[in-house]
Specification:
Radius of gyration: 26 Å
Number of strands: 11
Helix content: 25-40%
Number of domains: 2
Largest sheet: 5 strands, antiparallel
């Protein structure tokens, strides 16, 4: 049994359309399979506005708001739709042993502590660093020592975090070769 209204009152629909038009947006059609959800297109993204009733207002769903938020004022809904999206930096991925000794995470897959004893080693799993920390894992001591010995600049060029994490791997070697080649050519 649904507790949503069966229809959107004309006054609520007109005030929503007016607020969206003032923000330069156009109210789209009813979402297929629903009676009280309208769509709005903005910046290549589709937003959904579901009418929850006169007392509760609208539920807004869109990029960055996947579970929906309640908005009482239709002007607030228009502001949220037209607001620029916050861009997040991608999470750094780390390597974690699959086996009995899961106490640390490793930014570099070539860490000798990651491979360990064959009887307890069942491979590696890759996950975002914040997930590894949430599971109670800490940065590997050997990796930490390696990361602190990696310079922040190489031949006057700042070293990116990705390269610092893979300083002793072919990625680090290639990056250093590229820097030296570029400096020699200039």
């Amino acid at each position: 049994m649904s507790h949503l209204p069966r229809t959107i009152p004309t006054a609520a629909l007109e005030s929503l359309a007016a607020a969206l038009a003032a923000a330069g947006l156009e109210l789209g059609p009813i979402k297929p399979g629903t009676r009280v959800t309208r769509t709005v297109q903005h910046g290549g993204a589709c937003w959904e506005l579901t009418y929850m009733g006169a007392r509760w207002g609208w539920r807004l769903i869109g990029p960055g708001v996947e579970r929906g938020i309640g908005v009482l004022d239709v002007e607030e809904a228009a502001e949220r739709i037209t607001a620029p999206l916050a861009t997040e930096a991608p999470a750094r991925t780390v390597h974690v042993r699959i086996g009995t000794h899961r106490t640390a995470y490793h930014p570099d897959s070539a860490c000798p502590a990651l491979n360990g004893k064959p009887e307890t080693y069942r491979g590696q799993e890759v996950m975002p660093e914040h997930q590894a920390q949430a599971r109670g894992l800490a940065l590997c001591g050997q990796c930490d020592a390696l990361l602190t010995t990696v310079p922040t600049t190489y031949a006057g060029v700042p070293v990116p975090a990705l390269v610092r994490g893979a300083w002793t791997t072919p990625l680090g070697d290639g990056w250093r070769l590229g820097v030296r080649s570029t400096l020699a050519a200039s």
